[in-house]
């Protein structure tokens, strides 16, 4: 099992609610959020050379380009028992991904603690030892 979080992502006047994979093996340069191309388009993120940098990464199926957007999106975790704050995250857009993935530093910025990755159990920092 994996840890999936329901999140809202906002960029200017556009927003989308989706699931994101909490992945501590995605070691971002900062609080990064990997976004598939279709979600980037829905958020109206433009990949102009002046707004993004292109990198090549190694994936299971070979080398793929990713686009590191120079701006940020606002993201928050959606839960039933509280209204969480919007946190700025750096979008990394990928044509080869089909899922939103949160980097290790994005998880920290959002206050997420993974308790048991195999069971998909997590909590917020301030709930540690009290709730999951």
* Protein structure class: mainly beta
Largest sheet: 6 strands, mixed, barrel
Note the run of SSEs as H and E: EEEHEEEEEHEE
Mean pLDDT across residues: 89
Q: What's the number of helices?
A: 2
Strand content: over 45%
The CA-CA distance between the termini, in Å, is 16 Å
Total E-strand runs? 10
Supply the key terms.
132 residues; mainly beta; 6-stranded mixed beta barrel; two-stranded antiparallel ribbon; 2 helices; globular
Could you characterize the architecture of this molecule?
With 132 residues, the chain is mostly beta strands. It has helices at residues 37-42, 104-110, and strands spanning 4-11, 14-22, 32-36, 52-59, 62-69, 73-77, 87-94, 100-102, 112-116, 121-124. Strand 9 and strand 10 (121-124) form a beta hairpin. The protein is globular and about 45 Å long. The mean pLDDT is 89.
Summarize the helices and strands and which ones pair or pack.
Blueprint: E1 4-11, E2 14-22, E3 32-36, H1 37-42, E4 52-59, E5 62-69, E6 73-77, E7 87-94, E8 100-102, H2 104-110, E9 112-116, E10 121-124
Parallel strand pairs: 2-8, 3-7
Antiparallel strand pairs: 1-2, 1-6, 3-8, 4-5, 5-7, 6-7, 9-10
Short description:
The chain is mainly β and 132 residues long. The protein is built from two helices and ten strands; from the N terminus they run E-E-E-H-E-E-E-E-E-H-E-E. It is globular, with a radius of gyration of 15 Å.
């Amino acid at each position: 099992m994996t840890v999936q979080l329901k999140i809202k992502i906002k960029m200017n006047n556009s927003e989308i609610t989706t699931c994101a994979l909490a992945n501590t093996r995605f070691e971002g340069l900062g609080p990064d959020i990997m976004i598939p191309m279709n979600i980037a388009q829905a958020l109206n993120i433009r990949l102009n050379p002046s707004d993004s940098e292109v990198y090549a990464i190694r994936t299971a199926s070979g080398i793929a380009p990713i686009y590191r957007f120079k701006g940020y999106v606002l993201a928050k975790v959606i839960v039933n028992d509280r209204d969480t704050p919007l946190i700025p995250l750096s979008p990394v857009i990928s044509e080869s991904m089909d899922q939103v993935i949160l980097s290790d530093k994005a998880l920290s910025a959002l206050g997420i603690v993974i308790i048991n990755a195999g069971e998909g159990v997590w909590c917020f920092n301030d709930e540690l030892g009290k709730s999951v």
